[in-house]
């Protein structure tokens, strides 16, 4: 299964971590596309040197948009399975195996990584609280009994990737994927994954306050649907 | 003294808006109504007071303030929707550009951007 898979990694100014991430991922899945979302550093060059295909957004338009670009490319290349992964090194490459074994075991169309089922290192209390709220909100919003939300680790079958269309360019895309899974009637499962919160990933990643922006974007999306 | 200044300002703004002939009929109607009522209230300030009394608002100035706030919100919402629309176009453009020029690890091509 891994040999007909592609890994899609959206990256924005991740020159510090991208090489290590790619090295560990490539050991498992050789086909990787990094979508460089308008980085100002050497993210593209490092990703190329580490053996990934690189698509470069000339300007920064957001992680959701980058993910959609990468997924479209992977589909064009004939990917049967598509993994998504963050570029900041907070995910273990071994999680790809957890996702794929869950997919094989459950026959799901989409497998979502879950921090709650798995293990987290160094997650600050404030983040834990925001996540709890976000999970509660997502359960209400989508009606899905999830244990985690906004986790960058996912595995999609080709059929699922063809049907899900990410239109939210920024962070609200993660909720958008869930609402689409729900409305398209896709089968989904969660896989326990380990997430490492390092000083770097926390500085690079979203602030807790981003949750408000996400709510605003979701409100807008529901107004214009 | 203030009346000619206000009227001139309104006339100038109207002329500026009119010189950009990109307004839809609805937008033009809104702008015309907005400034039209502005002119009327500048010329006949008592009218605002009477309208306010009829609506149980108190003073004409308060009534005008409420309408100003409402139109401000409306304009902000309009800009926000436009911004989002432009964002969608931008995203699609940027994506097409990126998909046109994939960089592959072995060929070493196009490292200097698209």
Task: Walk me through this protein's architecture.
The complex is a heterodimer of chains A (225) and B (114). A 7-stranded mixed beta sheet of chain A has the order 3-2-1-4-6-5-7, sandwiched between helices. Chain A is of the alpha/beta class. The model of chain A has no long low-confidence stretch (mean pLDDT 86). Chain A has helices at 18-26, 43-49, 63-76, 95-106, 125-142, 158-163, 173-184, 199-204, 210-224, and strands spanning 5-11, 32-37, 53-57, 81-84, 110-121, 154-157, 188-196. Chain A has one domain (2-223): Spore Coat Polysaccharide Biosynthesis Protein SpsA, Chain A (Alpha-Beta Complex). With 114 residues, chain B is mainly α. Chain B is built from 4 helices and no strands. The chains are: A alpha/beta (225), B mainly alpha (114).
Number of helices of chain B: 4
Count of domains of chain A:
1
| Shape, principal axes of CA atoms of chain B | elongated
Major sheet of chain B: size, sense and barrel closure?
Answer: none
List keywords for this structure.
heterodimer, A: 225 residues, alpha/beta, Spore Coat Polysaccharide Biosynthesis Protein SpsA, Chain A, seven-stranded mixed sheet, 44% helix, 21% strand, B: 114 residues, mainly alpha, 4 helices, elongated
